[in-house]
Amino acid sequence: MAEYSQYESVDTFTPEGKVKALEYIRNTVDLGNTTIALGNKKCGVLLAYTGKKSVLAHKQPKIFKISEKAIFSFAGITNDGLDIVKYLIDLSVWEEIYKNREIHPIKVFDDLREEASLRTLYSRNRMYGCGGILLSSYNNEINIVEFEPAGNVQYVNAVSIGSRSQSAKTILENYSGDYENADRNALIKIAIEALRNAHPDEELNSDNLEVWCLEDKAYIVESFDFN
Q1: Which of 39, 52, 137, 212 could lock onto 44 through a cystine, CB 3.0 to 4.6 A?
Q2: Neighbours of 150 (CB within 10 A)
Q3: Could you report the per-residue pLDDT of 165-207, keeping only the tens digit for each?
Q4: For residue 28, is pLDDT > 80?
Q5: Under 8 Å CB-to-CB from 43, ≥6 apart: which residues?
């Protein structure tokens, strides 16, 4: 028989001023697969590290096509991430059919932000256990948007989420002045270097990497230089 605490619907704060539930969720995101995005107004790259998998395991995609001009990836709890993917695809279809336009990179998250914020404030529902990156084209400009479990959404020039993401961000920051004039291959090279810094002991290859590019349309990059 289940037992319920009298504090079931209230988030309690620790003396350090941190919400424990939010800390747990952030740790969950940090345990997810490393995902990196970077780009400029004309080209964007989204790279996901799939890690070591059993030869018997079915390969799961890490980057999802939302529309012809939008792709999304997440790190954290898979079911929550797939719910967000479905949410984005549904809104993308609605915008295309009823408005004949692409999804707005920030406004597309409005309903999701509200729900995520309520989940953060009240304990009746579990918080979203994943963070995500949306790479999309709007008004002929490439945009990168980061979604956080608490409902925060922001534009970024480059971002890394998931396992050892801080190590990847170090490389992204070092090249921050080069993004504006970089082409696709240069952006991929920076992303791979950032990922290699996050996973120095791993041999990166086409089997454990997934790379997508967004220019006029979103497409998967089948071959690229690892050097």
Answers
A1: 39
A2: 19
A3: 999 999 999 999 999 999 999 999 999 999 999 998 888 888 8
A4: yes
A5: 142, 182, 183, 184, 187, 213, 214, 215
Range of the domain at 164: 24-50+59-220
Q: Is residue 180 part of a domain?
A: yes
Confirm whether 166 is domain-assigned. yes
Q: What angle do CA 161, 35, 226 make, to 5 degrees?
A: 135
At residue 143's C-alpha, the angle toward residues 156 and 85, to 5°, is 95
d(CA 159, CA 188): 14
How many structural domains does the chain have?
A: 1
Which among 35, 68, 60 has a CA at the least distance from the CA of 161? 35
Residue type, 196: R
**What is the CATH number for 28?**
3.60.20.10
Task: Give a yes or no: residue 1 inside a domain.
Answer: no
* Torsion angles phi and psi, residue 149, rounded to 5: -55, -30
